[in-house]
Design goal:
mainly alpha
Length: 208
């Protein structure tokens, strides 16, 4: 792969990552409600989903799913259902009226559960799969014997730059959160915002 092609890919990847979208919106909301550490772990889960989709593109499974109407519908339903469950849990947390605090947020949020949430949000989203199926091959000579290796390299590159950008967003949101910790009912407000964001993402997934 030529270096110029790689840098074109990297530039396009960065622009696509910072463009407003469901991942950044939810990451920002979660980092505000639960802190930068939780946001970074969520980011790790999200980019792990990217690696998974890259693997599906490499082995040809992505193309099979794309051509299966039933598989696409099932993925949409599962993805939306999962997001709605998360939205319901966030809404219930907001109704409980618990005050937000750094120690409590980190104690009550299992790092493994947050990481798994990020993974599932991406893995169960067929739009992400279709994006990588269309995006990655544009920068690869598919007739080359090393095409799969190049796709893997590009997928890993996309995941790394996305993790860096997502982590910076989580850190920035965490700083803002620390400034707002004393605001009354902030925890409830952010839980309701999180529930709303998740519901919107679920509905967008279903109608797309």
């Amino acid at each position: 792969m030529e270096s110029t092609t790689f840098f074109y890919f990297l530039a396009a990847s960065i622009l696509l990552t910072i463009a407003p979208g469901p991942d950044i919106l939810y990451l920002l909301t979660k980092s505000l409600s639960s802190g930068a550490k939780i946001g970074i772990i969520l980011a790790a889960g999200l980019v792990s989903g990217i690696v998974f989709h890259t693997f599906l593109v490499m082995v040809g499974v992505a193309a099979i799913i794309q051509n299966s109407t039933l598989a696409m519908i099932l993925l949409k339903i599962l993805g939306a259902a999962y997001l709605l469950v998360l939205a319901y849990n966030a809404f219930r947390a907001g109704q409980s009226g618990k005050k937000i605090s750094i120690k409590k947020a980190n104690a009550e949020s299992s790092f493994v559960a947050i990481y798994r949430r990020g993974v599932l949000m991406n893995v169960l989203n067929p739009k992400v799969l279709l994006f990588f199926l269309a995006f990655l091959p544009q920068f690869v000579n598919l007739s080359s014997p090393s095409a799969d290796l190049h796709i893997a390299l590009l997928g890993l590159t996309f995941a790394i730059q996305a993790f860096v950008i997502f982590s910076l967003i989580a850190l920035a949101a965490g700083k803002v959160r620390n400034l707002l910790l004393r605001r009354k009912n902030l925890g409830q407000i952010l839980n309701f915002v999180e529930a709303t964001v998740l519901t919107i993402i679920a509905l967008m997934l279903l109608i797309s």
